[in-house]
Amino acid sequence: MDPIMAQLRARYVASFPEKRALLQAAWQAIPTHPGAKMDLRVLCHKLAGSAPMYEFMELGAAAREACNAIDSSYENAAVATHIDSILTILARD
Question: What angle do CA 39, 91, 38 make, to 5 degrees?
Answer without folding.
Answer: 10
